[in-house]
Design goal:
By secondary structure, the protein is mainly α. It has 11 helices and no strands. The protein is globular, with a radius of gyration of 27 Å.
Length: 273
């Protein structure tokens, strides 16, 4: 079961573009960044598609903006895991911070789980848009505010032909006074620099992740060579590499194997002497 996959599983080598395509294709969304799924609503609906009807969609807030909203969604998701007897702890405190790497790893795990249940096939009978209407709001990215403003503008424009020109000029004047000024040049430059710095930070994190994954993969390949794979040290290393996410005993078990090896070698030396 995907709940017990280790860090070296191929699931964790799936790129963010593939994850985003997987989400957008199945849920009819248009996410462009991994952190847009940090609210937990996407994960809830993915489970609802994989196990139709298992998620109480009326409790899922698709337009959550605060960490409190996100936490409520993850509570729903954790309850679903409990119902399905999925032994997977959700790192809510990390996911709600919308850090790309944390959310990517959880979505990688989720994709592996869903694929293990449905064979990677899309549920053609599932209507994601209709199911989202059962939730707290209808959109993930929350364009409701924009829709409201569009409706207001349309109502003003539709009646403009019958309005008195003086009233129209007065209303436009009031509207202009109420408009908030845009950012200054220095503010715009500051925001642009902040965005650039964030992108650089994300790129560095991804490179660091890929670097360590590559090192772990080299260790795994070495431990799998026929000459070494059955040696106690290789067995101990693979015990850690293939441990499930929540298996905290893996390190202790590996240390026990190494200790037994050391004791055996010391006993052999004592017998020789």
């Amino acid at each position: 079961m995907a709940a017990n996959i280790g860090i070296m599983d191929s699931a964790y080598f799936v790129g963010r573009n593939e994850i985003l395509s997987w989400i957008n294709d199945r849920l009819h969304l248009n996410l462009s960044r991994i952190e847009e799924a940090a609210s937990g609503a996407v994960q809830c609906q993915m489970m609802d598609m994989t196990h139709p009807g298992i998620v109480p969609m009326h409790k899922v807030n698709f337009d959550g903006k605060t960490e409190y909203d996100f936490i409520q969604n993850y509570k729903v998701l954790q309850d679903v895991f409990t119902k399905l007897k999925i032994d997977k702890h959700i790192e809510v405190n990390r996911l709600v911070k919308a850090r790309p790497l944390d959310n990517l790893e959880f979505l990688q795990w989720l994709k592996r789980y869903c694929d293990s249940v449905n064979g990677g096939l899309m549920n053609e009978n599932y209507n994601p848009v209709e199911r989202r209407t059962k939730g707290g709001n209808r959109s993930i990215r929350g364009p409701l505010k924009n829709q409201k403003s569009l409706q207001t503008n349309n109502s003003v424009n539709s009646g403009s032909c019958d309005e008195d020109p003086v009233v129209l000029r007065r209303s436009r004047s009031i509207g202009t006074k109420n408009m908030k000024p845009g950012p200054t040049l220095s503010e715009f430059q500051s925001m642009t620099k902040e965005i650039t710095d964030l992108k650089v930070s994300v790129d560095l994190l991804e490179k660091e992740r890929d670097f360590y994954f590559a090192k772990l993969r080299d260790v795994e390949v070495l431990c799998q060579t026929p000459e070494l794979e059955n040696l106690p040290m290789s067995v101990a290393i693979k015990k850690i590499l293939y441990a499930a996410d929540e298996n905290k005993d893996a390190l202790a078990e590996a240390q026990e194997i190494v200790s037994e090896l050391i004791n055996a070698e010391q006993t052999g030396l004592s017998d020789d002497s």
